[in-house]
Amino acid sequence: MKKALKIVGIILGCALLALLGFGAYVSIVGVPTYDPPSIPEITVEGTPARVARGEVIAQIQCMSCHADKNNRLTGKHLAEVPAMFGKLYSKNITQDKEKGIGNWTDGELMYFLRTGVRRDGSYAPVMPQYPNMADEDLKSVIAWLRSDRFPVQPSKEEAPGSEFTLFSKVLAHTIMKPLPYTGQVVAFPDSTNPIALGRYTADAIGDCYACHSGDLIDQDKVNPQKTKGYYGGGIEMVGEGGKKVITANLTFDEKTGIGSRYTKEQFIRAVKFGVRPDGSILKYPMEPKMVLSDREVGAIYEYLKTVPKINHDIAQKTAELQLAEK
Ligand code: HEC
Ligand code: HEC
């Protein structure tokens, strides 16, 4: 018996040492760098249709994290990220050749947006990856980045570098990983099928599931439906003035989801203009998505009807949070 205990003790001791060793290693190495990838040869023609579509996607994706207070994409502090992950900043992605991405090729941008890895092999853990965005939509984003639009015009301004906590460095070595570049063509969904269009708009364009599922970090980027707590909400985020705000349960669960509380028209109004059926305003970081069409947002509603219901009472969670903050 004693011997068994001793062995267990030794094993635990070794595990602890290994863990400490890993922690020390990670704190020195920081966010990992991978082998420089082979970049695809791509040339994106900047047609007006692409620039227009790219602007729609940029408005709901890139602008919210990269735009400074003058609406230029010079990078900014990501205040909504909880402090346990560190003090995180996005980067200058204007056309400036030195501070921005003026020197990146179209292939490098495509590769980075799909995988999270730059041409030198460095990995950007906080920047979302877009494995399911259609090739044509990614090309539209690139066309917009190259366009004459105001937010992307060259600027030398720069945000400070990110300060990662040990916790987020460990995550960047374990759960958060670059995605593989498959090179396979990702096609646009059948847009006459509302459920397919809704799923694409929610998961691949809006990244709605990334905030509205069970965990901010532990997500299945390639198969979003496999993310735990898919659309069940409940993630605590930092809202306006540092106040905590909890993401909503968007499943059609009768008691705790949106199905019984929202008609399709009310849902469209909430997502596009940030107003709930009772007239209250949705709090940051839920930003109004005015650039999406009624058809696209209506399609998200149709898709959410098909998502497995999750009983998760966010109102209750919010009430508990408010009590704790008092
Ligand atoms: C959730 C916030 C967020 C969103 C949304 C986002 N980014 Fe980023 N992006 C970041 C952060 C943070 C970094 C810096 C990563 C780092 O420091 O390693 C970054 C880095 C980049 C870089 C690399 C710049 C460099 O000099 O290394 C490019 C290019 C980029 N983003 C483009 C985009 C585009 C295009 C979009 C929209 C399709 C977008 N980002 C959406 C947060 C975001
Ligand atoms: C950056 C994180 C984030 C993203 C991305 C996001 N949301 Fe939200 N959403 C929130 C938060 C936080 C709330 C809660 C706001 C509040 O309590 O006022 C919310 C609330 C909502 C509500 C209100 C639900 C209710 O119970 O009244 C709807 C509807 C909604 N989001 C739909 C969407 C859709 C559709 C998308 C994608 C197009 C999306 N959200 C993307 C964070 C996000």
Reconstruct the topology from this structure.
Layout: H1 2-29, H2 48-60, H3 62-66, E1 86-87, H4 106-115, H5 135-145, E2 163-164, H6 166-173, H7 194-205, H8 208-212, E3 236-238, E4 244-246, H9 264-273, H10 294-306, H11 314-325
Antiparallel strand pairs: 1-2, 3-4
One heme C is lined by residues 58, 61-62, 64-66, 88, 90-91, 93, 101, 112, 118, 124, 126-128, 141, 145, 162.
Description of the structure:
With 326 residues, the protein is mostly helical. The N and C termini lie far apart (51 Å). The chain has helices at 2-29, 48-60, 62-66, 106-115, 135-145, 166-173, 194-205, 208-212, 264-273, 294-306, 314-325, and strands at 86-87, 163-164, 236-238, 244-246. It is 39% helix and 3% strand. It folds into two domains: 48-173, Cytochrome Bc1 Complex, Chain D, domain 2 (Orthogonal Bundle); 194-325, Orthogonal Bundle (Cytochrome Bc1 Complex, Chain D, domain 2). Helix 2 (48-60) packs across helix 5 (135-145) and helix 9 (264-273) crosses helix 10. The structure holds heme C (2 copies).
Helix content: 25-40%
Query: What is the string of helix and strand elements?
Result: HHHEHHEHHHEEHHH
Uncertain residue segments: none
- CATH T-level fold name of the largest domain: Cytochrome Bc1 Complex, Chain D, domain 2
- Averaged pLDDT, please? 92
- For the biggest β-sheet, the strand order reads 1-2
Tell me the count of domains.
2
Broad CATH class of the largest domain: Mainly Alpha
Largest sheet: 2 strands, antiparallel
The number of E-state strands comes to 4
Ligand names = heme C
CATH-defined architecture of the largest domain: Orthogonal Bundle
- C-alpha Rg, in Å? 21 Å
User: What is the number of helices?
Assistant: 11
Overall morphology = globular
Q: Class by helix and strand content?
A: mainly alpha
Q: What fraction of the residues are assigned to beta strands by DSSP?
A: under 5%
Q: Distance N terminus to C terminus?
A: 51 Å
